[in-house]
Amino acid sequence: MLIKMTVLAIAYIAVCALLLTIAYQLQGPVATAKTDRPAGSSFLIERFAG
Asked: Fewer Cβ within 10 Å of end Cβ, the chain: N or C?
C-alpha cells in the first residue's frame, strides 16, 4: 500500500510539473504585442491613407 501511494504521488508531481512547464511556455512570446497599432487596424489603410 505504501509503495502504491508513493508511486501515485510521484506521478502526480510529474504531471503537475509537465503541465506547469507547458503553460509557462505558451504564455511567453504569444502574449506580448509586437506593434503599437490597435488590434483592429489595417496596415494597408494606415499606409496608404491620405
From this structure: C
